[in-house]
């Protein structure tokens, strides 16, 4: 029962954790009102001979807390652009606030007609907490000008009940001013929680968009290279083939020469395409290490790279395949973990080049994703082409470690 929430928390990403933190901060504002009202009702039970007000206040406090929690939830969903029924719960919360405040204030004198004994003004405290419980969700879901109007309007709607209950005009005016100031502060605090939550999700969406743009840019580069290489040659092949057809129909011997030229251009195009693909598929070890550090630092992950003096002396095919290991491992760190530190180390061991990659922030319960595992399988295939192997040894809890070894 205890490990369930902990595992779910570890499986959340940073935006989800931030939203959960701020959401429960708003919920805590609603729960704070409950002990205040309970203390006030306890004072009512001690001060008055009748417990009618205490009982009514207790019921209103519990109902207000539950309605306010629902209003906070739907209001935050609306602020984040999700479907919600926030209007319904705002109306219910406002009606409960006004009706409850009037009830508590008008029942201030005991039901048997005896005047209120000296003691803490518990009815005013309960009315203020009910007003504050409505102001929070209003500040989250409505525009600020409407939220400020609600902050001023609710205390004014409660003030007639105070005058009818026998509270002096001066005390009523002071209570209204204090309630307005308190609700304005509460609106600003709750609004800031919602704003920070939205900013966190926007930053996460921006990072995903940046990744997609990088992939799209690489595709455009590759298509542009293919177009530059193949466009002119294919056009020449088409023209010369058409010319050869016309010459062949006329029985001209030049048709054979044109077809020989077409063959030469086709072979040259084939070679150029191989060069383009080879350049696209070749990963430079130093460039990939530097790129991995830049990408990880941009994601707030400290990256330690130790290639030593071994990288320069490695054969080019070995450097290329190890560069692909770094590229894929960096992708896995960003996609499948919440790492704060990453280590990339290269060493020579028993006639082999061994690349070690280690990162922390691995969730205890991995979140499955479509196509999971294809990256490591692809790396094993690349390494197998060079008689190498990829192993995932046991690491400390929350840590992922992978070793790529290629014989020299």
Describe this protein with a few key phrases.
408 residues; alpha+beta; Single alpha-helices involved in coiled-coils or other helix-helix interfaces; Heat Shock Protein 90; five-stranded mixed sheet; 11 helices; 5 strands; elongated
Shape annotation: elongated
The number of helical segments is: 11
Secondary-structure class: alpha+beta
For the record, give the distance between the C-alpha atoms at the N and C termini, rounded to a whole number: 52 Å
* Strand runs, count: 5
For the largest beta-sheet, the strand count, sense and barrel status come to: 5 strands, mixed
Mean pLDDT across all amino acids: 76
State the strand order across the main sheet. 1-2-3-5-4
Regions with pLDDT < 50 over 5+ consecutive residues?
109-120, 367-373
- Helix proportion: over 70%
* H/E series: HHHHHHHHHEHEEHEE
InterPro entries: HATPase_C_sf, Sensor_HK_TwoCompSys, Sig_transdc_His_kin_sub3_dim/P
Protein name: Sensor histidine kinase
Keywords: Kinase, Membrane, Transferase, Transmembrane, Transmembrane helix, Two-component regulatory system
GO molecular function: kinase activity
């Amino acid at each position: 029962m205890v490990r369930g929430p902990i595992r779910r928390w570890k499986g959340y990403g940073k935006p989800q954790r931030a939203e959960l933190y701020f959401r429960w901060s708003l919920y805590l504002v609603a729960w704070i009102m409950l002990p205040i009202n309970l203390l006030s009702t306890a004072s009512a039970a001690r001060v008055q001979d009748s417990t009618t007000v205490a009982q009514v206040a207790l019921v209103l406090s519990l109902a207000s807390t539950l309605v306010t929690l629902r209003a906070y939830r739907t209001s935050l969903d609306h602020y984040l652009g999700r479907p919600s029924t926030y209007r319904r719960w705002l109306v219910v919360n406002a009606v409960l606030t006004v009706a409850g405040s009037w009830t508590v204030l008008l029942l201030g004198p005991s039901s048997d007609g005896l005047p209120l004994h000296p003691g803490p003004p518990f009815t005013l405290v309960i009315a203020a907490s009910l007003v504050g419980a409505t102001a929070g969700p209003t500040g989250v879901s409505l525009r600020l000008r409407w939220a400020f109007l609600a902050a001023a309007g609710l205390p004014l709607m409660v003030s007639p009940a105070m005058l009818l209950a026998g509270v002096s005009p001066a005390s009523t005016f002071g209570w209204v001013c204090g309630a307005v100031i308190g609700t304005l502060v509460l609106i600003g605090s709750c609004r800031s929680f919602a704003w920070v939550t939205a900013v966190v999700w926007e930053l996460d969406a921006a990072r995903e968009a940046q990744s997609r743009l990088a992939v799209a840019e690489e595709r455009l580069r590759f298509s542009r290279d293919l177009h530059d290489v193949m466009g002119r040659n294919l056009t020449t092949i088409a023209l010369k083939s058409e010319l050869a057809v016309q010459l062949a129909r006329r029985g001209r011997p030049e048709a054979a020469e044109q077809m020989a030229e077409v063959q030469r251009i086709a072979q040259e195009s084939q070679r150029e395409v191989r060069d383009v693909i080879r350049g696209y598929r070749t990963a430079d070890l130093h460039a990939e290490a530097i790129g991995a550090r830049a990408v990880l630092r941009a994601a707030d992950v400290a990256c330690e790279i130790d290639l030593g003096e071994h990288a320069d002396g490695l054969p080019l095919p070995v450097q290329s395949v190890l560069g692909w290991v770094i590229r894929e491992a960096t992708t896995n760190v960003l996609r499948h973990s919440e790492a704060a530190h990453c280590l990339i180390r290269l060493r020579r061991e028993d006639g082999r080049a061994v690349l070690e990659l280690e990162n922390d922030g691995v969730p205890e319960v991995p979140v499955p994703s479509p196509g999971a595992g294809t990256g490591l399988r692809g790396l094993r295939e690349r390494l197998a082409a060079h008689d190498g192997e990829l192993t995932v040894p046991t690491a400390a809890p929350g840590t992922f470690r992978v070793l790529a070894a290629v014989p020299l």
